[in-house]
Amino acid sequence: MVCFIADDHAGKLARWLRLLGYDTLHFPAIEDRALADLAAREGRIVLTRDTTLAHRFPAIEVFHLKEEDPFRQLAAVVQRFGLDCETHAFTRCMMCNAPLEEIEKDSRRDEIPPQAFACCHQFARCTGCGKLYWDGTHYLRMKERLAGLRP
After folding, report:
1. Helix, strand, coil share of the chain (percent; to 5)
2. How far is CA 71 from the centre of its chain?
3. How many domains does the chain fold into?
4. Do 29 and 72 share a domain, yes or no?
5. pLDDT in the model for residue 150
6. Residue-number span of the structural domain to which 38 is assigned
7. Per-residue model confidence as pLDDT tens digits over 47-99
8. Is the pLDDT of residue 148 over 90?
9. 8 A C-beta contact, residue 49 and residue 64
10. Among residues 97, 106, 116, 128, which is most buried (max CB within 10 A)?
């Protein structure tokens, strides 16, 4: 599966790609040399609005983002790399990029907000930062938005 690294101006795009299940690193304050070195070492595609990055570091693959809107950027990345928007969606933490693991809601009753516990059925915890996720209204809105990416 393709992996990405988003530069400091593509943090929202990184979260959307993680939502689709793609391993996407993002460091808000990374120097270009460190970004390029990490991309080369791990075989990651760099996502950037910087038009000169590819020329300065020819050993890495760079995808130049022409759009300013993160969702339009996502659509361009999905189209360019033929990304699957369904198979691995909602399997990575949008915040830290770690995989999510499903949890039984009864086992975490004390951590789940009462309204979510009452109405939601699927729960997951980030294996990295511990953030909880569930299939509430925010999840449904994101699913609807992602449905527009399908060809």
Report:
1. 40, 15, 45
2. 12
3. 2
4. yes
5. 64
6. 4-81
7. 999 989 889 999 999 999 999 999 999 999 999 999 999 999 999 999 999 99
8. no
9. yes
10. 97
